[in-house]
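Need C-alpha cells for this chain, all 215 residues.
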Amino acid sequence: MTKILCISDTHSKHNLIPKEWLEPADIIIHAGDISNVGDFLDIEHFCMWFSSLDQYKHKIFIAGNHDFGFENEPAHTADILSRFPNVTYLQDSSVTVEGLKIYGSPWQPEFCNWAFNLPRNGEQLEEKWNAIDVDTDILITHGPAWGMLDIAPGNLRVGCEILTEKIKNSKVRTHICGHIHNSYGEMMRDWTHYINAATLNERYEVQNPPIVFEI
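Here are the C-alpha cells for all 215 residues:
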C-alpha cells in the first residue's frame, strides 16, 4: 500500500500549516492555488517549502485558478521549477511513482475570469479531459467534478459536468481536487474515491487538515 497526503488551496499560507498535520507519507499532493495571484516570488517560496518536506519521497502539485504565472509565463515558471528537481509539477501530464500513474491538470469551467478557465461544457474543456490517460490511477484537477464536493457559497454546484462523465467512464481510483473551499472532504461514488483537499476555509484561514489515504 502507498500512503498519500493531500492538501490544496494554501494561497501562500503554506508556512501556517501546523507541522503535526504534515505526517510522513510516501507521496504529498497539492491540488493547486499555491499562491494568491501567481506572483513569481510566491511560486518560488512555495517550491522552496514544498521541496524541503523530507518526510515525503514524492512531491507532486498542479496549478490552480489563482496561479496565473503558470499560464501566462510558462518559461519563467519552468525556470523556477528547474531549481527544485525533487518536486514534480503536472500540467496536462502524468508521472508514475510507487507503481501509480498520476495525471494532473489545472483547467476548470469559467470562474470569475481567473487562470486556466475554459468555457463550461465547451469543446476546449472536453479536449483537456479527453487527454487524461486511460490508465490513470490518481487524477488531480484543481476544480471538482460536477456533483462531487463542488457546492460553493449560495448552495451552488460549480463542478465540471464533462469531468464527471470522464471519470465515470474511466478506471480512475482517486480524484483529488480543491478550489471550492467549503466543500472540503471526501466521498465515494461507484469505484472512485473523491477528495476535496482545500486547506483554507472561505475566510482564507488555515482550517482543514490534510486528507490522508492509502491505495
